[in-house]
Amino acid sequence: MQGEGFGVTDDQALEMREHAEPEDDRVGETASDPVAALGPLIRELRKQKGLTLSDVAARTGLSVGHLSQVERGLSTPTIRQLQQVSETMGVTIGWFFRADQPEPPSPDSDVVVRAHRRRRMTMSGVGIVDELLTPSLDGALELLFCTLQPGAGSGPEPYAHAGEEAGLVLTGEMELFVEETRYHLRAGDSFAFPSTKPHRYRSTGTVPLQIVWAITPPSY
Question: Which domains occur in the chain, in start order?
């Protein structure tokens, strides 16, 4: 669809709007809205890489309109979509983990992660909070504490990446698909599989699903 009388497509109009608007039209909301905080991080990284919305759209297969809404905090990407955006910009999803209130390093921060200092990525639009349990993503292991609200999940599209992963279900119930096989897990059950196999997951219980999830090497 084109802008009336101007021969400008909707995607081009969004690109022009992006350059015309302030860096973040929801600045006042980012502190209280984690989704609004994720969007500016994506936009910040995209601009650091010298990419336009159209560049990212072409490389990911996502629409410029959807990407614009994500960057403005109006929509939350699925795990697969966030993975596509991350790969396009040369990082892993872990790049988006941030501390709620950044603090100066403590003497033990290279070994210990205190509960109140965990870096997290909150996707409230899809009901997922991932907290990083390892001090950094510079080593060979990534350990996460994942909380999914009932009905929340990675999305309908499976995703895959390098490495292996394993997890332990602490509370709730989990529906896990690895390739075409469906697995139903309850509290106390654990899993492991090569991350190169397409997979997706969902919280199917009536209480939040909580998982300690390990990935090696850090590639989530």
Answer: 2-91 (1.10.260.40), 98-216 (2.60.120.10)
Q: Which amino acid is at 130?
A: D
Q: How many alpha carbons lie under 13 Å from residue 195 in its C-beta half-sphere?
A: 16
Interatomic CA distance for residues 38 and 31, integer angstroms: 11
| 206-220 core/surface letters (b: 16 or more CB in 10 A; e: else) | eebbbbebbbbbbbb
Please check whether residue 191 is in contact with residue 185, taking contact to mean a CB–CB distance below 8 angstroms.
yes
Q: Closest Cα to residue 200, out of 174, 164, 170?
A: 174
Query: CA–CA separation, 204 vs 186, rounded Å?
Result: 10
| Per-position pLDDT tens, the chain of length 220 | 434 444 445 444 455 455 444 444 433 343 344 445 678 889 999 999 999 999 999 999 999 999 999 998 888 888 889 889 988 998 888 787 766 555 667 788 889 999 988 988 888 778 999 999 999 888 899 999 999 999 999 989 999 998 999 999 999 999 999 999 999 999 999 999 999 999 999 999 999 999 999 999 987 6
Query: In degrees, to the nearest 5, what angle opens at C-alpha 41 toward C-alphas 40 and 43?
Result: 60
